[in-house]
Design goal:
Helices cover 71% and strands 0% of the residues. The chain has 119 residues and is mainly α. α4 packs across α5. The longest helix is centred in the middle third of the chain and has 50 residues.
């Protein structure tokens, strides 16, 4: 009983150096920051990396703005416009009644206000 309590289900093995090197060789290589700095053409390494970092950050902020604000708002507007169009076509098919929009600007404005109401 005492030998069973001392044994565990996890075996501790020490990996051989050859096995760890083959594992590292199978990983994809990526350029390091020192190789990126060495490959630059002009001497402004610090300014270039700062500019590149700021450019990537601004692109990320622009992407967040588009995905979090613009795309949902535009999708909601056009989704409602499509739903209104589809509902009008269904109602004209089901009940032959003519629907007339008297003011196109008011109709579009109401769609924009209604889409923005829940944001």
């Amino acid at each position: 009983m005492s030998s069973d309590s001392q044994s565990s289900f996890v075996e501790a093995t020490v990996p051989s150096p050859a096995a760890s090197l083959s594992d590292v060789d199978s990983l994809p290589s990526s350029p390091t920051t020192s190789s990126l700095e060495a490959s630059s053409d002009d001497g402004g390494d610090g300014e270039e990396t700062d500019a590149e970092r700021e450019w990537k950050e601004s692109l990320q902020q622009l992407e967040l703005l588009l995905t979090m604000v613009v795309v949902p708002y535009v999708g909601k507007y056009f989704g409602r416009k499509c739903a209104y169009w589809g509902w009008a076509k269904f109602m004209q098919w089901k009940y032959p009644v003519e629907i007339v929009v008297t003011s196109e600007k008011m109709f579009k404005g109401a769609g924009v206000v209604e889409a923005a109401a829940s944001l």
